[in-house]
């Protein structure tokens, strides 16, 4: 902001130096020097206030302090849209993917085919946002854990009836290899996601799998029982699934 | 930013209108009109880039995706300082406290004296930052859960030898009532915080306490085993304790 002040100083200098010679009726000097400054300050105050507020809401959501939540706060709708359509969401996704990759490479695999990485599907491997849907969202980490020798389990809240379309969606987005795709059976329809997913992870453990990593955009993908050794929370300020 | 552009337009208008009459040798017009604009754009680009990067780092830390971490990324030192000394940290603390309060009021207490809220001490009840140290940091939620009838357990990584000074610190900051203050005994010195705190929570459970809420600035205050029904993560982009 200091640079901005410097710039304003420079841009106003000619006014200061020239006001003796130029026609002061053209634009009254006090108006130029004072009015926009006050209005801009006020506007920036409001903008900063809203950003503080919505930043804080987003942090609380991502740290699972706000829980449950039903909708984006009305006043943060524009903020969330900017976040998702701007570069910040991409930045955040990239970082989670990178951190997960660092961990995946560091963790010692047993190599007996029982080392597991779990992926949620919607807004973890597949995106609802057109840009991300077309740009291999989630694919990088996926390829990485596969090449390291993890067994990949896909654990989704989608129902069994959507198996075929889900496989198509996955294939179309470049995901072609997994050990198991787990969808909700009729028995699981009424369960909270956190219960359903915990039960499925517990079954994996009972089958002797070691749950080393888990990636999901919802805390209900990651918490509960039989949690993975490390969980990676992808950002999602759009909706909350209990 | 549109408003800023408008402001610049207005502030440059007199230059445009007056350049015939004022001494153009004083400050050459192209310099004024072009140079700061480019420099400012470049500066804003860098600033935005750094903010995106450091925002993303902070999110990853608060969502426990970056784990462990040793230091604040060098390039984010100024960002973290601004965050802590500006209003954003206060905003975030306030929100966590508020969300915890909403939950505390909503949860049904058994009323048998076994309903527990756990607080970490450093950077949860007591702050290292001078401003917060003097402004009842953490006190509001503390008073709230006490008045609701929770039993308060203080669970800190400080060692038993610091009991006296810890009590003094707490009293000086306005904390005078708790059920139990648990510090590290000699046996616990070598343990990771997450192990030590899990063990202490497990002991509480064995004594019949219901761990309904837990507030801490470190994930190692909140995760592990015998986790509370709800955990509240206070922001801390300063340091990480495993």
TrEMBL record, chains A, B:
The UniProt entry, under Gene3D superfamilies, shows: HAD superfamily/HAD-like
Cited InterPro entries: Acid_phosphat_B-like (IPR005519), APS1/VSP (IPR014403), HAD-like_sf (IPR036412), HAD_sf (IPR023214)
One Pfam family named in its UniProt record: Acid_phosphat_B
Q: Which GO terms describe its molecular function?
A: nutrient reservoir activity
The secretion signal range is 1-18
Q: Please indicate if the UniProt record lists Signal as a keyword.
A: yes
Write out the entry's keywords from A to Z.
Glycoprotein, Signal, Storage protein
**Per the similarity annotation, which family is this?**
Belongs to the APS1/VSP family.
**Functional summary from the UniProt entry:** May function as somatic storage protein during early seedling development.
Name-wise, this protein is Acid phosphatase
Organism from which the protein derives: Malus baccata (Siberian crab apple)
């Amino acid at each position: 902001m200091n640079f901005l002040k410097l710039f304003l100083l420079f841009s106003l200098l000619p006014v200061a130096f020239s006001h003796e010679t130029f026609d002061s009726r053209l634009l009254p000097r006090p108006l130029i020097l004072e009015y926009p400054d006050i209005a801009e300050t006020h506007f920036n105050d409001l903008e900063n206030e809203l950003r503080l507020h919505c930043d804080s809401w987003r942090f609380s959501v991502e740290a699972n302090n706000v829980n449950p939540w039903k909708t984006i706060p009305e006043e943060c709708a524009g903020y969330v849209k900017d976040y998702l359509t701007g570069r910040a969401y991409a930045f955040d996704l990239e970082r989670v993917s990178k951190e997960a990759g660092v961990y995946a490479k560091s963790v010692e695999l047993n190599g007996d085919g029982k080392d597991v990485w779990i992926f949620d599907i919607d807004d973890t491997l597949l995106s609802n946002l057109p840009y991300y849907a077309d740009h291999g969202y989630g694919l990088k980490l996926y390829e990485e854990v596969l090449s390291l020798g993890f067994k990949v389990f896909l654990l989704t809240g989608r129902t069994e009836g959507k198996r075929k379309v889900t496989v198509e969606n996955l294939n179309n987005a470049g995901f072609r290899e997994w050990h198991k795709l787990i969808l909700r059976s009729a028995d699981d329809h009424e369960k909270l996601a956190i219960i359903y997913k915990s039960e499925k992870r517990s079954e994996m453990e009972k089958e002797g799998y070691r749950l080393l990593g888990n990636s999901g955009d919802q805390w209900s993908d990651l918490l509960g029982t039989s949690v993975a050794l490390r969980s990676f929370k992808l950002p999602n300020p759009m909706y909350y699934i209990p």
